[in-house]
Amino acid sequence: MEKIPAADPVQMMTISLFIILLAFFILLNTIAVIDDQKKLAVMDSLLGSFGVLTGGTSVVMGSGGNMALPEMAKISSHVDFSDLMVGNEDIIKLITVKTDYRGTVLSIPTDLLFEKKASRLKPEGLKILDGLHGAIRKNEFPVEIVGHTDNRLPQMETGVSNRELSSIRSLRILQHVLNRGSVKPDRITAFGWGQYRPVVTNKTRETREHNRRMDIQFIHDGVAEKPRGIFTFRKFFFNVFE
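Predicted structure:
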């Protein structure tokens, strides 16, 4: 009678672990809820990152096949930027919007908002901020206002660094938004990076203009979930969220 060889314990353990992992991923797939808007946001981020849209994604149609604001607003989990377009039609093409892993980023060139190398707001900058206030007020996402500069030193108060200048500008925007009302102060924060987060090199005048920007980050994952009730299963209690 032929003797059956004994099973290899290591091999059996490996196969068992693979089966357990497979079952786990099948379970996750069956209970997952796929959000079409998030899929679109991811696709847009990938397309922009790998250069399928030459020139990046912009608020309105511009050079390089940029994306229009209404389409971008849908992709960006319904962030409504319509108030920003009112009265700013001539300069809106200079404002860009993109998505990242945290949410939606509205990037406004600093030169549209502030006097050169200063923290004083321009009259036309105030109009843009009024539209920004409407966008923040309509959307429930937490907001970060982040200032950026190029690598050249500011010419305002003596001893002020680029990081301080970018922080002061961010606080100016925050204060203007809060003074307009209807926005909770705990929803919005402001700080500055100075020249330490450039998007391109600072070697030319044109590239330095790209680095001088105010980024308004709408944080999608920061929206507080509201509990709808409690689900009980075999004496275990689970909070159910919207």
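Summary: The radius of gyration is 25 Å.
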